[in-house]
Write a structure and sequence with these properties.
3% strand; 9 helices; 67% helix; two-stranded antiparallel sheet; mainly alpha
């Protein structure tokens, strides 16, 4: 696949943040996160590494932006859905976005751990949990449980896929989609029970 072509301005090549993120996605698709470096991106874009640092001062900042970009398509679900249906919709959309780009779950995890990510997608989960009437601590715990389920299981899946591509191991027989669905159902069932208990406690007080 040919290198991505930056935009030409006034007879010279210029790149945008969109160009950099698109090139980074291509490196993940064709290679792996281990191969994603500022030098490789510069080569893909046909520019010097210094041109990248204008937009992203270091690799960690780039990874955080890339993680946010990968999850940018995850939008707030329809308001007419029940609160628990909205939680499920966001969780499934997050996983779908991650599964579409190799090694992306690890990228997102890195961005969240560094504190450089906006983590905007978590707002959708928090809003749904709040509309369900869950307490602050229950909302926080539920959002963490769903986010870590999505990220953690997808990291396992993508690591396995990378190992199979490299010939380190043969094809596995795990059904990650089924595991995700089962685990999410348990998490949501627990959230409904917590909500019911809170409702009873409020009525009794």
């Amino acid at each position: 696949m040919p290198a991505l072509t930056p935009t030409r301005y006034g007879g010279r090549m210029a790149i945008t943040r969109t160009d950099v993120l698109a090139a980074a996605r291509e490196v993940l698709r064709r290679h792996s996160l281990a191969d994603l470096s500022m030098r490789r991106l510069a080569t893909e874009l046909g520019v010097s590494p210094n041109a990248l640092y204008w937009h992203y001062p270091d690799k960690q900042t780039l990874l955080a932006a890339l993680g946010d970009d990968i999850l940018a398509d995850v939008t707030a679900p329809a308001d007419d859905l029940e609160w628990d249906e909205r939680l499920e919709s966001v969780a499934r959309a997050m996983r779908a976005s991650l599964c579409a780009v190799p090694d992306s779950a690890e990228v997102v995890s890195s961005g969240w751990s560094s504190g450089l990510s906006t983590m905007a997608v978590l707002d959708h989960l928090t809003d749904a949990a709040r509309d369900g009437g869950l307490s602050t601590s229950a909302r926080r715990g539920l959002v963490t449980a769903i986010a870590q389920l999505v990220i953690g299981l997808t990291i396992e899946q993508q690591t396995r896929q990378q190992m199979e591509r490299l010939g380190v191991t043969g094809p596995g027989d795990r059904d990650y989609d089924a595991e995700f669905a089962d685990a999410l159902a348990i998490v949501l069932a627990g959230a409904r029970q917590v909500r019911a208990a809170q409702t009873v406690a409020t009525a009794a007080s």
